Fold this sequence. Notes:
335 residues; alpha/beta; nine-stranded mixed sheet; 9 helices; 30% helix; globular
Amino acid sequence: MRTGLLAGGNWIVDHIKLIDTWPAQDALASICRQSSSNGGSPYNILVDLAQLGAAFPLSAVGLVGDDADGRGIRDDCVARGIDVTQLRTTAAAPTSYTDVMTVEATGRRTFFHQRGANARLDIEHFDFRTTKARFFHLGYLLLLDRLDEVEGNETRACEVLRRARAAGLMTSIDCVSEDGQRFASRVLPALPLVDVFFANDFEAERLTGVSLRVDGVIQRAKVEAAADRLLSAGVQAWVVLHFPEAVYARGAAGEGLWQPALRVPPAQIAGAVGAGDALAAGVLYGLHEGWPMEAVLKLGVAVAAASLSDPSCSRGVRPVRECLALVDAYGFQSA
């Protein structure tokens, strides 16, 4: 019987800087505090799952540089019980990093990214022949240069997903919120090879052409229409669309479930970086454990809410019981 989660893609060190304001061009902002932490879809999700107390195996696949950041990532994973057999090292590029500029008063963030070793991650770095994992998660599409290359009618990432499915793994993916025109050519071809697809409102709009907001307010009918389009594009099991107000999951069998986000007091919000990955970690935890989708989504928004308490991606995430306790402490938004 398969058990566990194998996660691959972007391995990043986030250099987080809390600033007093977002400056205009050529103006000055002050850095109030700074720290470093995990970043990138697989790194965030695996760390989140470890902090949730996942009892199933966690495994990493990716490429880091032969440098202090790369060694730090490997050491961190080992300390958390994450298998690093497929987390490979290259001397040809530095470990990827991101400068995360977070405005202290609002939690809004802007990213400056060094693509580094992640740009060299390719099909041959993934070996599904020996893994006993149940799930394989890949992210972020649009930020994996080699895997995002188009060959014929699909990308090289499609071949990775195809091999994972052929080996018996369920697949999930996430993409980055790129302000460009590549969603149709790089992300849509992968959807028929994906069991669970995660996207925020920006990404869903770019993929489907459906505007999800009117005067800044989420429109339920539009969200549901976008999810239907993504299912029609090939997603095999669940489309999970998330935004600050709520999460909506649409199933291939026709189910549609809304789950409002938690009503987190502004004073408890230290930063929103990593909230989307935290939600995905909660969803993948529940799916792996066979929970009903209602409980899966409740855990997802609870883990996302917990992550907001710290400016890093994962330090705010707590064990499952403590995350779910936030539901009673905060209650749900009215969305």
